[in-house]
């Protein structure tokens, strides 16, 4: 379909279009002027007929400026003049060529056929002294065949250029969409990482703060140590939040955060940090000779982190069992289990209070509110495991709540 170029031409001519139109107008005018001079020197043509033919030729050349806007209309308007006028021949050739270039064959074909039929009366009214009747018809038919072939070639080339241009534009749009999708996926990954980190840190801070409020009579050095831990954790949480906001607000040129990513070896430190907060954790983790490839270690760390965070929120006094097993070729299995707790949320702080005060606790504090949960941790965890090609199971299992994940570990 070549309707789009015509619409573009109606909208606005480019510099190239103006140059082409000027050259075509000048060429048609020169040919028309030469044919007019031939008429004035032909004694068989009366002067009034030559004058009328010259006026028709001049008007036809001026009408060529409308060929881009109304190619088929201009060609049809010149059909009657082609039956008797010699001077209008240049404008007719340009109009026929234009309609073949800008209009499909179902429109250009009938227009060319009408102009071809005008050669019959023209050959009768103005026979060529050097050619016979059939010879004149043959020359006219060959001329129109050349115009149609040239127009079809120009049309095909124009369609090819438009197709290549559309492909380039489509490729640019697709590249922009791919870039946007990649940027969105990266931002989602960063947000997922920050959810894991902040949820873990803030839940620990809440437990420490609740423990201090629950046991204001604890020794000063223990309160000081807990307060220092809260301050350091809050500072780190703010740094994490500031970093992720900067990345999410940045454009495509923003670099990926340069924070050191956790590895499988950092799981022991994570467990120790939670034990210091008062959690009772049993860790079963063999020593592997090296760090797993890719992001396997980071994913395992985040899984354990989310499992401990959920256990701290929903079953604060229940012991937690963390087991990592497997190896290269058989995959890595991560299991986090804790007993289902039916106690009140106030008990969430008691273990921290005992840890801070090193004595049995009594009374109530702000810990009654418990630790809020967003409900999105397991959803993000399922997405992380799915992207890694693993499997995730979670739910009650034998009186416990079990989080079981298997991650592929290439041999």
Automatic annotation (TrEMBL):
Please provide the record's keywords in A-Z order.
ATP-binding, Coiled coil, Kinase, Membrane, Nucleotide-binding, Phosphoprotein, Transferase, Transmembrane, Transmembrane helix, Two-component regulatory system
Domain of life, source organism: Bacteria
The EC number on file is: 2.7.13.3
Where do the TM regions start and end? Answer: 18-40, 74-100, 131-153
Spell out the reaction equation it catalyses: ATP + protein L-histidine = ADP + protein N-phospho-L-histidine
Q: What class of enzyme is it?
A: transferase
Question: Which InterPro entries does the record match to this protein?
Answer: HATPase_C_sf (IPR036890), Sensor_HK_TwoCompSys (IPR050482), Sig_transdc_His_kin_sub3_dim/P (IPR011712)
Q: Which residues form a coiled coil?
A: 161-188
State the Gene Ontology terms under molecular function: ATP binding; phosphorelay sensor kinase activity; protein dimerization activity
Q: Does the keyword Signal apply?
A: no
Q: Give the record's GO CC terms.
A: membrane
Tell me which Pfam families the record gives.
HisKA_3
Where's the Signal transduction histidine kinase subgroup 3 dimerisation and phosphoacceptor domain? Answer: 186-250
The cross-references to PANTHER family, in alphabetical order and at most eight, read: NITRATE/NITRITE SENSOR PROTEIN NARX-RELATED, NITRATE_NITRITE SENSOR PROTEIN NARQ
State what protein this is by name: histidine kinase
Q: Which organism is it from?
A: Microbispora oryzae
What are the leading ranks of the lineage?
Bacteria, Bacillati, Actinomycetota, Actinomycetes, Streptosporangiales
């Amino acid at each position: 379909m070549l309707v789009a170029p015509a619409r573009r031409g109606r909208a606005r001519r480019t510099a190239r279009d103006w140059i082409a139109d000027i050259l075509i107008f000048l060429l048609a005018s020169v040919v028309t002027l030469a044919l007019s001079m031939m008429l004035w020197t032909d004694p068989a043509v009366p002067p009034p007929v030559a004058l009328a033919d010259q006026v028709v030729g001049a008007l036809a050349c001026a009408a060529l400026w409308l060929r881009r806007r109304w190619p088929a209309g201009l060609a049809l308007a010149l059909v009657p003049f082609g039956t008797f006028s010699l001077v209008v021949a240049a404008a007719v050739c340009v109009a026929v060529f234009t309609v073949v270039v800008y209009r499909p064959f179902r429109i250009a074909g009938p227009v060319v056929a009408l102009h071809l039929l005008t050669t019959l009366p023209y050959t009768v009214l103005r026979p060529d002294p050097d050619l016979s009747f059939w010879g004149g018809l043959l020359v006219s038919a060959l001329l129109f065949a050349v115009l149609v072939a040239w127009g079809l070639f120009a049309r095909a080339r124009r369609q090819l250029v438009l197709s290549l241009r559309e492909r380039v534009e489509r490729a640019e749009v697709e590249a922009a969409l791919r870039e946007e999708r990649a940027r969105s996926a990266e931002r989602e990954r960063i947000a997922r990482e920050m959810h894991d980190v902040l949820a873990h840190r803030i839940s620990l801070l809440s437990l420490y703060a609740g423990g201090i409020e629950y046991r204001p009579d604890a020794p000063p050095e223990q309160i000081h140590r807990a307060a220092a831990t809260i301050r350091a954790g809050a500072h780190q949480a703010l740094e994490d939040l500031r970093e992720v906001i900067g990345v999410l607000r940045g454009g495509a040129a923003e670099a990926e955060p340069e924070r050191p990513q956790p590895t499988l070896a950092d799981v022991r430190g994570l467990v120790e940090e939670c034990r210091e907060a008062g959690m009772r954790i049993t860790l079963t983790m063999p020593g592997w000779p090296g760090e797993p490839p890719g992001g396997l270690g980071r994913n395992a760390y985040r899984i354990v982190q989310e499992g401990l965070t959920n256990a701290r929120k929903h079953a604060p006094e229940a012991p937690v069992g963390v087991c990592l097993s497997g190896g290269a070729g058989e995959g890595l299995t991560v299991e986090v289990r804790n007993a289902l707790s039916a106690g009140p949320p106030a008990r969430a702080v008691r273990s921290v209070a005992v840890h801070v005060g090193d004595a049995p606790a009594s009374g109530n504090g702000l810990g009654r509110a418990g630790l809020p949960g967003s409900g999105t941790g397991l959803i993000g965890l399922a997405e992380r495991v799915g992207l890694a090609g693993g499997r995730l199971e979670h739910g009650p299992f034998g009186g416990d709540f079990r989080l079981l994940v298997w991650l592929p570990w290439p041999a």
